[in-house]
Input
Amino acid sequence: MVGAMRRTRNTKIVATLGPSSSAPPDISRLFEAGADVFRLNLSHGTHVEHKARFDAIRALEKDFGRPVGVLFDLQGPKLRVGDFAGGSALLEAGGTFRLDLDEEPGDSRRAPLPHPEIFAALKPDTSVLLDDGRVHLRVARCGPDFAETEVVTGGQLSDHKGVNVPSVVLDLSPLTEKDRKDLRFGLDLGVEWIALSFVQKPDDIAEARKLIAGHTAVMVKLEKPSAIEHLDEIIEQADAVMVARGDLGVELPPEEVPGLQKKIVRACRHTGKPVVVATQMLESMVHAPTPTRAEATDVATAVYEGVDAIMLSAESAAGDHPVEAVSMMDRIANRVERDPLYRATLEAVPYEREATEADAITAAARQVARTVTAAAIVTYTTTGSTTLRAARERPDVPILGLTSNASTARRLALAWGVHPVETSDVGDFDEMVEKALRVATREGFATPGQRLIITAGVPFGTPGATNILRIAWAE
Output
């Protein structure tokens, strides 16, 4: 065993694996650089490749003696134009352009769009965005199999470029047949998180949950404007949320995305649901060894907001400097969390606690830890709810999350401030306290004579039943 590693920061890092980071030594280096959770992006790669990466992560856990989460990111529907004669065409601003179901290759006047569900939702004046918003069309006339549009912003359009229709809800499930096969594969592997793309409304989550049947946790990617209209309901149904800023930035004016990020983060912190900020955080590091100052500020802003995790995509999956990108993110997060303004910013967001024993005990644990200068808060949990409630409080001290459930430990690797530890089950609270003291000392969280704040729910195994708080001294 290489030895358990304790992070010195609360904010977690999610690193996407890909061609630049698939070999087991590469994945180990990413973990040592600071990655806490690894993302498998099902938009790319084969099941064989993802299985090899998954196996490397599980081997990594044994080497380092620390739970590591796996985020399994489903592709979702991909809306694209068809082929062009010659591979591309130039659309002139102010001209007209037709989209239809005809499979004949397109030109500068028309193109095939093999998605009848889009035509069914279009109305006059609806905006249609092509190629990540580089080409902007406005619908003039439409029917069940065509749309005559005006070219608002022109440009070169090539085969199979993406299509976004921001102002309408499409009659599309977030799960394609490919997603369903990928989902079965992920559940067979035993991943901790399923990331659900193309969520437009709360019902989309219910469909996925039915297939998942409680076997893993659901992370909803917020990338559609229609999902923002149902934000509270979607967060309530999700186990965690990802702010997918790239897609949001295509379908919404760029100036709206920063405010939406803050709104989503605050809503998630209020409910205690883990929230991840993603997309283009250190984009220049795909090729450059260092980020721009603007990118460093972007990462720092998310950390100041108190997000649970920040994510790397192409930077770690396909970039030239994957380890350096993780290391840079780790350095930025550590530096922000040492800033006195960080704590002030965290506490500037008030929220209402529920009138329950669990919320009262957890809020008290945070306050007692501060009052007695405790070394850590130790939680004992089966499902993770006790530990996530402690993380919602954003305490001054680390949270040691003890659980006998390996999946729960790995899932908690995503949560703010939580150092998860898989340990054997206990029979009563006194035994749990003894174990908490041993683990806290062994993991480097406490030295003899330091206080620990311990919370749990009795009887054990009852989700959300946090009802005991104990102050104990490490020996």
Q: What stands out?
A: The chain is about 35% helix and 25% strand.
